[in-house]
Structures are given as structure tokens and as C-alpha cells.
């Protein structure tokens, strides 16, 4: 084991020393859950050192092949809308089909953006390293990073388990409905994961139901796999950026207060040197943020837009199932199925909005940290440098905007919830009037 991080594995972060310059970010020194990404084969899609055949990345080729197969299955599942079949599709199934197709396209869009920017993206992984910030003052706050690493790994593991639970639930529910709840009639198709509109008649569909069931499992698992991997990757990098800014703010804040660092040295000279070293770390971190934002901007904007619409759509589906005339057990199963889908979309939307809200706040907190240092005891040269740094930070402040005035943050999440609530309220009143008449 590398002695540099020997104490870290034991849960002690106090004795981490500076590694050699040749060491790179690995499973034990970064705040991102590389274990999950590597075990699931997603990290290797971007890794230039992955296994190759005739110069082609094996994992990337496998991903492209699986994507083509899955896209063909989705296309086949939607062909039924082009033909007049003996049975019809209700609005609930139609919403679920739109939900599934939209989510698959969204995940493919995310991965394509990441593959196109894979070189820049690999550079971003440096920011997740515990030793990314080089100044001594930032290294003194290594405990903050270690606590964050533990928390980030726990969050990603919980998110991973929740996603697995959702897909398993959606896969199991059709079997439960077909075996114990649904009435077997000639004009009714057996329940499937999403109930896609395959271009076959009811008898053929029910006869080869296992085949169609496997098709939908492949589509569902592939979609959830990509959603999960991309989210773990992007959210973990964003969380790492947040905590690195927190370390920077704390390092700036301590300037002028730690007498041990100034013992036997000239007071102003040392503080000036410490400030410049932290400032260099901030410049490195800012460069990573400027690299991160252009990559994730098209992903996040598309994600927020589609998720907002899907959240409203699934909320309406939930209401339709609740007000339907199906059996009580059937309604409970479908309400639970759609409810977990709504919860998942809500959680995902919240995580991204909360992430960029926090990045904006933590970047602003750096100036607060600079202002909180013991600048009143410094000379005029230091005060000018401090003021100039704060002005530059304000000038370089960037955000991800959905429009010229709308920033991606928690208020957007609140607006989506409020809009969905208003639409559902209108639907409830409309349906109530319709039933009375």
C-alpha cells in the first residue's frame, strides 16, 4: 500500500503527506466513486488506455453496438402507432411510452456529449483528487476533503441502490399484474414494463410475450444504466468542485490568524506569500470550472427541460390511475410504479438544481473568506492585492442559465413542482365536473 495514504484507509486524514508528482487520481485518493464506474465498464469508454482491438476502444464499440440494438428495439416498439391494430392504447400507457423514449434519448444525448469532450472530461477528474490544491494552507484543511469523500461515496452508493430498486420494481410489477391481478381476456395484451405498441395483434403478442418482455427489460436496463453512470460522474465532479471552493474559502479566511505559520518570520512577507499560493490554487480551480461548465451546460439544460415536462406528465398519469375504474389492487400496483418514477425524476432534478445552486454559493463564499482574513493588520500592498482579487472573482463569476435571466438553481426546481401542482389541480377540478355531468 502506498504509505502516502496509509492513514487514510484507516479513517485518519491527519497524516496525509504530499505524494510524488507522478501519482494520479485513483480509487483511494479521489472523491468520486471510481469503483462503480470501472466495475460497470463506463469509465473505460473514455479511458484512452482501455483495451483496444485494431486501435478501437472495445468498451466504446460495445456501447455503440448496444445502443444501435436498443434503438432498433425502441423503433420496433413504436411501429404499432403506424398501423391500425385491434386494441387501443390508453393515455396512461401513452405517457409511459413517451417517458421511456424521452429518457432513453436524453441519456444517449448525455453520453454523446461526454464522448465528444472526452479529453477535456478526463482533465476534469483532477479536481476530484484530495491533493488537487497544492498550497500548504489548503493542505491543512485536508480533513474537510476526507469528510466530503466519505459523504460523497455514501451518497453515490445510496443513489445507485435506489436506481437499482426502481428498475427491479418496474421489471417485477408486470409479472405480478399478469399472474395475480389482470383478467385474461382475448382483446387485452399482457402487462409489460412500459406496454410499448408493438405492430402485432393481441394473440401474437400474448403468445410471444416473453420475447417482448425481454425487449423491454433490455431497453429499461440500458436506460437506467446510462442515467446512473452519467449522474454519478457529473454530480461527483460537481460535488468535488463545491468542496474545493470550501477549502479555498477556509484557507483564505485563516490568513493572518495562524501565529505558528508566522513565527520567526516577517509578518507581512509571509502572509503575502501564503495569499499568493492560495490564489494560484484558486486559478487552477477556476480553470477547471470553466472547463466543466461548457461540457455540462447542454446536458443540464436538456435534462432540466425534459425532466420538467416528464415530471408533469407522470404526475398526470398518477392522477389518471388514481381516478380510474380498475380494481383496487391494480391501481395500487400502478400507483406505486408510477409514483417511484415521479420520485426518481424529482430526486434527479433536485440533485442537479441543488448542485449548481451550491456551486454558485460556494464560489461567492471565496470572496467572503478573503474578506474574513486578518486584512486590517496588513500593509497597503496586501490590501490592494486583496481588493483586486475580489474584483476579479466578481468579474469571472459564471453560471449556467436556462435563459438570459433564469439561472439553473433550486428556484427552478420549486417552479416545476408548483407548475405540476397547478396542472394537476386543474385536471382534478375538470374531471370532477365531468363526472357530475
From TrEMBL:
Annotated transmembrane regions: 61-83, 95-116, 158-181, 210-243, 300-323, 335-355
Organism: Acyrthosiphon pisum
Keywords: Cell membrane, Membrane, Olfaction, Receptor, Sensory transduction, Transducer, Transmembrane, Transmembrane helix
Family per record: Belongs to the insect chemoreceptor superfamily. Heteromeric odorant receptor channel (TC 1.A.69) family.
Entry protein name: Odorant receptor
Principal cellular location given in the protein's record: membrane
PANTHER family: ODORANT RECEPTOR, ODORANT RECEPTOR 19A-RELATED
GO BP terms, alphabetized: signal transduction
Gene Ontology molecular functions: odorant binding; olfactory receptor activity
Keyword field contains tRNA processing: no
Membrane topology: Multi-pass membrane protein
One GO cellular component, as annotated: plasma membrane
Domain of life of the native organism: Eukaryota
Residue ranges that the Swiss-Prot or TrEMBL entry lists as coiled coil: none
Cellular localisation: Cell membrane
Amino acid at each position: 500500500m502506498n504509505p502516502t495514504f496509509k492513514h487514510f484507509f484507516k479513517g485518519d486524514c491527519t497524516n496525509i503527506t504530499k505524494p510524488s508528482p507522478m501519482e494520479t487520481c485513483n480509487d483511494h485518493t479521489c472523491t468520486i466513486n471510481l469503483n462503480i464506474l470501472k466495475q460497470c465498464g463506463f469509465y473505460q469508454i473514455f479511458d484512452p488506455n482501455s483495451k483496444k482491438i485494431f486501435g478501437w476502444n472495445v468498451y466504446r464499440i460495445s456501447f455503440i453496438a448496444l445502443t444501435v440494438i436498443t434503438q432498433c428495439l425502441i423503433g420496433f416498439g413504436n411501429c404499432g402507432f403506424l398501423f391500425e391494430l385491434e386494441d387501443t392504447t390508453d393515455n396512461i400507457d401513452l405517457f409511459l411510452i413517451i417517458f421511456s423514449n424521452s429518457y432513453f434519448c436524453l441519456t444517449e444525448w448525455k453520453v454523446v456529449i461526454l464522448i465528444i469532450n472526452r479529453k477535456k472530461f478526463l482533465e476534469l477528474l483532477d479536481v476530484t483528487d484530495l491533493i488537487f490544491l497544492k498550497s500548504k494552507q489548503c493542505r491543512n484543511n485536508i480533513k474537510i476533503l476526507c469528510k466530503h469523500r466519505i459523504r460523497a461515496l455514501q451518497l453515490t452508493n445510496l443513489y445507485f441502490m435506489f436506481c437499482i430498486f426502481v428498475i427491479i420494481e418496474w421489471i417485477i410489477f408486470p409479472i405480478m399484474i399478469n399472474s395475480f391481478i389482470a383478467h385474461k381476456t382475448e382483446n387485452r395484451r399482457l402487462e409489460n414494463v412500459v406496454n410499448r405498441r408493438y405492430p402485432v395483434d393481441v394473440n401474437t403478442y400474448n403468445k410471444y410475450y416473453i420475447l417482448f418482455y425481454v425487449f423491454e427489460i433490455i431497453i429499461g436496463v440500458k436506460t437506467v444504466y446510462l442515467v446512473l453512470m452519467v449522474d454519478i460522474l457529473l454530480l461527483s465532479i460537481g460535488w468535488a468542485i463545491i468542496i474545493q471552493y470550501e477549502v479555498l474559502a477556509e484557507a483564505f479566511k485563516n490568513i493572518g490568524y495562524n501565529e505558528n505559520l508566522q513565527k520567526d518570520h516577517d509578518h507581512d512577507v509571509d502572509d503575502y506569500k501564503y495569499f499568493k499560493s492560495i490564489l494560484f490554487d484558486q486559478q487552477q480551480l477556476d480553470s477547471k470550472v470553466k472547463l466543466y461548465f461548457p461540457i455540462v451546460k447542454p446536458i443540464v439544460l436538456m435534462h432540466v427541460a425534459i425532466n420538467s415536462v416528464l415530471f408533469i406528465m407522470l404526475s398526470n398519469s398518477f392522477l389518471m390511475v388514481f381516478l380510474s375504474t380498475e380494481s383496487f389492487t391494480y391501481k395500487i400496483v400502478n400507483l406505486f410504479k408510477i409514483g417511484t418514477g415521479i420520485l426518481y425524476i424529482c430526486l434527479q432534478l433536485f440533485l442537479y438544481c441543488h448542485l449548481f445552486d451550491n456551486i454558485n454559493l460556494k464560489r461567492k463564499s471565496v470572496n467572503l473568506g478573503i474578506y474574513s482574513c486578518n486584512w486590517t493588520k496588513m500593509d497597503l500592498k496586501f490590501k490592494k492585492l486583496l481588493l483586486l482579487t475580489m474584483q476579479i472573482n466578481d468579474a469571472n463569476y459564471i453560471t449556467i442559465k436556462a435563459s438570459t435571466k433564469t439561472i439553473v438553481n433550486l428556484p427552478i426546481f420549486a417552479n416545476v413542482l408548483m407548475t405540476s401542482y397547478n396542472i394537476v389541480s386543474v385536471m382534478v377540478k375538470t374531471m370532477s365536473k365531468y363526472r357530475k355531468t
